[in-house]
Specification:
Length: 319
Amino acid sequence: MLQKWEDNPLNYELNTIRAEAPNNSLANLFAQTVRYLIEKLEDKKNRKRSWNFDDIRDIVSDVKAQVLGANRGHLRCREILLKGIFGLKAFLGPKKLAKLEEAVATAVQEDRLIYEGVQQEAARLSLNTDTRIQMYFMDYPDREPHLLDDHLMTTYKDIMWHLTFQEIVQVPEVWTRCENREKQPYTASGRHWNFVVGHETIDKTVIDIVDMNTVSDNYIVALVDTGEKEIPVPIGLPMFGRDTCCSPACGSLQVHLESIWEDVRVEHARLFPSKNCMRDTPLDSRNFGSRRNELYVKVKVKSTRMQEDPRAATIETSA
């Protein structure tokens, strides 16, 4: 009795590929070819073959892993899917192979049209040929901003893939820089940062990058006000009931920050927009939300080095 396709272990992996890859036509063609091969494999009339389920599974698993690592980069995912389809060709007979090659040509053309449409939409949203995306790096305060004028980028995952592929940041996360005094009332600029999900369309020309190799899996971004500058600083966030920020536990946000920022004194620590005082509050996931910028910290700087940028003391110790 043939196994129901819904129960096949490859069905989940193929659904993941189709959900993560922006190349719908190619992802569907890859999935259809895999399903055809699995059905041939399970057909008792077809027993003479030099390949088996493991051969197909290895290709599907490799495509899935690469697609997930590509961060929805359109061109990169197209390359991965075409390579996967090419790998499946070795298991097809001459007639099916000819049909597949025709289907690949059609799918690639459709994918190009979709991609061009996305580019036009991005241009409509103000990313024109005169616009550059300025990328700053929260973890590396001395690094010059990276200017990106490759306008093939349409989503923030495209930017993440670019940073990884160019070996600029290995595991990037993106935050957009905003200004709204109703949300952040403590400084004249109202500056704050929003964490973005990768598949969102690029709608900002100034963004900040967090390198996940320098912080814990859960972290917050604090707006640090030195009186001269407003700076986003990633701070590792311990999980309540499981971890503590210090050993032994320091017990409060102020003590913790002054221990990792040796050259500053914390004068105020408040949430925004609620204005709740957090200076004596323990730093953990019960009191702060992971990947949020809702903490304002006013500091008094004791040295010239920290006056220039308080992150200089936190890069290695805030994780």
